[in-house]
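ok new one. same drill as before - structure tokens go in, u give me an amino acid for every spot. 247 of them this time. try not to just spam alanines like last time pls lmao
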């Protein structure tokens, strides 16, 4: 079987479901691919000041330096005033995406797939009341956000209080602006921090933010890292798998 990857996003405001599909013969399924998905570039036409993202804590796709660098740059460049990336408890929460994928799984049971492009129709027709937007991708759309993050970000992060950040334990990343309790006003106020990432280990709004500057110092006469395409051509499949598919 030739696998088709699906990165799904659910817009909580409109209830739109957007599915990004690509063949395993075109590209991998890591952090670079997730950051490259076109829906994440809806910011080019958006009208909102604040973006809130809810996702699981999958390190390979959602909770990693590539995503941190991507969202940090969006906020720093003023695309959004603030971006809140909140991770829910794995195995204990049910996201709208999970419901979207359950529709697809039900549809797959009654439809036959003869070629990879058939999956696009199956996904699109799996929710009749509000059909999903389906975008079929190839290798050309993907950029190497992981390599860019490796070049931009520090290897380890130290917070302003001197403690090392426990990256895997973070439940909330905040970019651009954040609400913080003001002792003078006894209320939360918005504070800009375009050069820092603020983090929390819980979802508790009363927890003090961990604050850090994630960017490496650029040496004198050193050029700033640039974003490059990840694939020059489709990655293909192993010979044994190709033989099995053709048999």
């Amino acid at each position: 079987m030739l696998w088709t990857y699906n990165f799904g996003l659910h817009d909580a405001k409109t209830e739109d479901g957007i599915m990004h599909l690509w063949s395993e013969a075109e590209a991998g399924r890591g952090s670079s691919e997730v950051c490259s998905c076109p829906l994440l570039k809806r910011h080019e036409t958006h009208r909102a000041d604040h973006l809130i993202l809810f996702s699981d804590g999958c390190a390979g796709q959602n909770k990693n330096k590539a995503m941190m660098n991507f969202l940090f740059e969006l906020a720093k460049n003023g695309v959004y005033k603030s971006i809140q990336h909140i991770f829910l408890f794995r195995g204990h929460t049910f996201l709208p995406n999970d419901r979207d994928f359950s529709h697809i799984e039900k549809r797959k049971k009654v439809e036959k797939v003869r070629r990879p492009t058939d999956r696009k129709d199956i996904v699109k027709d799996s929710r009749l009341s509000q059909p999903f937007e389906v975008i079929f991708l190839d290798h050309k759309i993907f950029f190497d956000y992981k390599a860019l993050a490796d070049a931009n970000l520090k290897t380890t992060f130290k917070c302003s209080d001197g403690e090392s950040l426990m990256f895997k334990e973070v439940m909330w990343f905040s970019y651009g602006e954040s609400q913080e309790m003001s002792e003078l006003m006894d209320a939360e106020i918005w504070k800009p921090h375009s050069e820092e990432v603020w983090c929390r280990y819980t979802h508790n709004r009363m927890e003090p933010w961990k604050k850090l500057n994630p960017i490496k110092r650029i040496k004198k006469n050193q050029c700033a890292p640039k974003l490059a395409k990840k694939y020059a051509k489709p990655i293909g499949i192993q010979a044994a798998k190709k033989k099995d598919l053709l048999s």
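The radius of gyration is 20 Å. and btw Residues 4-246 form one domain.
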